[in-house]
Design a protein that fits this description.
alpha/beta, TIM Barrel, Arc Repressor Mutant, subunit A, 2 domains, nine-stranded mixed beta sheet, three-stranded antiparallel beta sheet, 16 helices, 21% strand, binds iron/sulfur cluster
Length: 402
């Protein structure tokens, strides 16, 4: 039976964080319940397309899925179980934000079969959390983490972020050390990206550009030291934080299995791995993306339309062979284990070398990747400049088959 991963998008948050450009917003209780009503309809309506699939992972993301009442989350889980075949061993994750879940809710999650939590901490420094516009502080996070363990969760991810305004390598180290003390099974460590259209972009967009160009901090460039405004770390500090993540986490028994993800043995996130390995996945809820049998499609991002029952997919895009190969390479190379030559051959009926021989040789000579007999993966140096390496796998001409 074919495998399927399911993503459920919950586009609600208590309040919008200042750096966030995800599809999410605050909403009243009626809207949330109505949204769940429509989700159930979409889940049921789509089921006929996935009769011969076994669901191996479910991921509630957002937004903040934990803003839903536990009864609403239970309704979604029941609908999934009623209309899809869910493997007994399926990984079922919900993102959780501190301040939106308590003992009761987490216990209910366990009872409905959710077996993995992803908690958004971002920083263990209350000042940094405030700057980010998060609704919680560190002790709220600790409370929810303890409640999760008490409820029986044995697979927990904690999200942290570096390169925050006002953050220093020392304060970042403290965040990492505090997280390590808790020994979660999985840690996702991302670097802040200043996204257009966010309050952070108006505050830091210019500084970010300047810093990227010069490699220096705004303080050095403009002599603004002493002003009230916090500043982004310079490139050197950012690099120090990046190196620190790898060093500390590896010392504590976490292995890096993807550019920004670390896990204890056997606790890699199966759902996210399915994305990077281009396995079939379907998304429910506004803006949710899907990839099924090489066709990419996405739900509309319009909540009003969705609430009125418009589940129409947009941007239906059947990937060409060339696009599929490119995706195979640059998604797969995000994983430390890299890409399999045998899988490439199985998927495309042509050896990887026949398409990418020049790039593989060039990147190997530059010490950026290891071109083994069975797999191709990035080296440490390649990981540091992964965007550059991945861009090399874009194909501009025809593929020589023969
Ligand atoms: S909680 Fe997450 S999704 Fe919601 S606004 Fe903050 S960063 Fe965005």
């Amino acid at each position: 039976m074919k495998k399927l991963s399911v993503y459920v998008h919950i586009p609600f948050c208590v309040k919008k964080c200042d750096y966030c450009d995800f599809l999410s917003a605050p909403a009243d209780e009626n809207t949330k319940t109505e949204y769940v009503d429509r989700l159930l309809e979409e889940i049921e309506k789509e089921a006929e397309n996935y009769r011969d699939y076994m669901v191996v992972s479910v991921f509630f993301g957002g937004g903040t899925p934990s803003v839903l009442k536990k009864e609403d989350t239970a309704r979604i889980m029941s609908a999934l179980r009623e209309h899809y075949k869910i493997a007994e061993t399926a990984e079922i994750t919900s993102e959780v934000n501190p301040k939106t879940a308590d003992d009761n809710k987490l216990k209910a999650y366990r009872e409905m079969g959710i077996n993995r939590l992803s908690i958004g901490l971002q920083s263990a420094d209350d000042k940094e959390l405030k700057t980010l516009g998060r609704v919680h502080n560190y002790s709220d996070f600790l409370e929810v983490y303890k409640a999760a363990r008490k409820a029986g969760f044995q697979n927990i991810n904690i999200d942290i972020m570096s390169a925050l305004p006002g953050q220093t390598p020392e304060s970042y180290r403290k965040t990492v050390e505090r997280v390590l003390k808790l020994q979660p099974e999985h840690i996702s460590a991302y670097s802040l990206i200043i996204e257009e259209g966010t309050p952070f972009y108006s505050r830091y967009g210019e500084e970010d550009e300047l810093r990227k160009k010069s490699g220096k901090s705004c303080i050095e460039e403009n002599g603004k030291q002493g002003s009230e405004m916090l500043h982004l770390p310079d490139e050197e500090e950012e690099r120090e934080m990046y190196m620190l993540t790898g060093e500390l986490l590896e010392n504590y028994g976490y292995h890096r299995y993807e550019i920004s993800n670390y896990a204890k043995e056997n606790y890699e996130c199966r759902h996210n791995k399915a994305y990077w390995e281009r396995q079939d996945y379907v998304g429910f809820g506004i803006g949710a993306a899907s990839l099924v049998q090489n066709v990419r499609f996405q739900n509309k991002r319009d909540i009003k339309g969705y609430l009125s029952g418009d589940f129409e997919k947009e941007e239906v895009d059947t990937l060409t062979e060339k696009e599929s190969m490119e995706e195979f390479m640059f998604l797969g190379l995000r994983l430390m284990c890299g890409v399999s030559k045998e899988q490439f051959l199985m998927q495309f009926g042509i050896p990887m070398e026949q398409v990418y021989d020049d790039v593989l040789n060039k990147m190997e000579k530059q010490g950026l990747l290891v071109n083994g007999n069975e797999r191709v993966c990035l080296t440490g140096k390649g990981l540091d400049i992964s965007n550059y390496v991945m861009a090399q796998f874009l194909l501009d001409g025809e593929i020589a088959v023969g």
